[in-house]
Amino acid sequence: MNKHLLTLLLVGATTCCFATNHLINISGFSFSPATVNAAVGDTVTWNVTSSHTATQVSQATWNANGSTPLSGGFDFTPANTSNGTSFIVCTSVGTVWYVCKPHASMGMKGQINVVATGLPDLVNNVAWSIYPNPVKDVLHLNSKTSASTVDVEIINMLGKVVMQTTAVPYDKAASIDVSSLTKGIYFLKSSENKMRPVRFVKL
């Protein structure tokens, strides 16, 4: 498993109506739950605390209770879990293996089994490019599509469209003023599902 199985984004790809957010906590020296069954489009979030980490590894390393990080994989620590960035979005079918680096030899590890959903906006695998994330006032984006324009919707965690606009595609930068949004997690998607949605955090 490599970085092409899961895209680690400061916002993730999902649709509110179909995708699920799976939360993984730490209980003693184990992940809870240790096994997550997810679907393409789902988000997996870790609540990393104390001296623990959630670090992606290869299957061989996982089987051996090793702690060598997978090149290009995620590596969450208490330092980076507090600002809302300790999550991944499942974009491909397969299994993701991860461990707590300091306690891998004790068997502190987990796995994510990802199955397909058939969602059309994930099949085309065309992603938004956005920054900054988290964002306070203005969200900059590039839709990376050959279409002339892309109609954009911003959706809250309840699945409600809270903002609509038209973005300039591909190599022409576009900006969206999100200063009026309340703090929280939102999803940026195309109204016609031509783009793979992404998640962003409003400060």
Unreliable stretches:
1-18, 118-125
Q: Tell me the radius of gyration.
A: 17 Å
Tally of DSSP helical segments = 3
Q: β content, as a range?
A: 35-45%
Strand order of the largest sheet: 1-8-5-2-3
Query: Helical content, roughly?
Result: under 10%
Oligomer: single chain
Class based on secondary structure composition and strand pairing? mainly beta
- What is the CATH architecture assignment of the largest domain? Sandwich
Helix-strand topology string: EEEEEEHEHEEEHEEEEEEE
**And the CATH topology of the largest domain?**
Immunoglobulin-like
Describe the biggest sheet?
5 strands, mixed
Global shape:
elongated
CATH superfamily heading of the largest domain: Cupredoxins -  blue copper proteins
**Averaged pLDDT, please?**
77
> Alpha-carbon distance between the termini?
33 Å
Number of structural domains: 2
Could you characterize the architecture of this molecule?
- This protein has 203 residues and is mainly beta.
- It folds into two domains: 6-115, Cupredoxins -  blue copper proteins (Immunoglobulin-like, Sandwich); 126-202, Immunoglobulin-like, CATH 2.60.40.
- Helices cover 6% and strands 40% of the residues.
- The chain has three helices and 17 strands.
- β11 and β12 (138-142) form a beta hairpin.
- It is elongated and about 50 Å long.
- The two termini are 33 Å apart.
